[in-house]
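Students often ask why we bother encoding 3D structure as a string. The short answer is that it lets us treat folding as translation between two languages. Here is a chain of 185 residues written in the first language.
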Amino acid sequence: MNPAASRLIRFNKPYGVLSQFQPEGRWRGLKEFIDLPGVYAAGRLDADSEGLLLLTNDGPLQARIADPRFKMPKTYWVQVEGVPDEAALHALRQGVQLNDGLTRPAQARLLPEDPQLWSRTPPIRVRQSIPTSWLELIISEGRNRQVRRMTAAVGCPTLRLIRMAIGPYSLQDLAPGVWVDEALR
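And here it is in the second language, the structure alphabet:
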């Protein structure tokens, strides 16, 4: 492939959109937002998760982004039910036992304040008697629904999940449903 023709799309995937071009059931597809021939998602982001999705027409780049062997870190902001204590954060940092094995250690911290983000449609469910808090989790693997399963394993179920970065690529100030084509050499 001619390197000048390589594309890398940064897209802020809204809630309810699949990481595929075709819609399925109640979920919308990427084609509703990105109508570019020849680009494909580099990895996945579940329909009920939001945030950074990278798309490219460059096969080797797609592999470097998506393949866990390359251990490209993925940064998530996670709104959870409850407030994780130091033991829960320590468990996330050490690796959490899931039904498919022990996760790699994650970087985990409680965000000092609620981030200023776009509203989600539909909004998350809130229970008046249980507080919520926000975590930043950085993982270097990509098991199915891994972040959600990790937070549940430490007693703090995920309410909202937003991927903020993949390696050097970040969401920056992209609004939901907006994409930008990065210049690749």
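Translate back mentally: The chain has a mean pLDDT of 92. Keep this in mind for the problem set.
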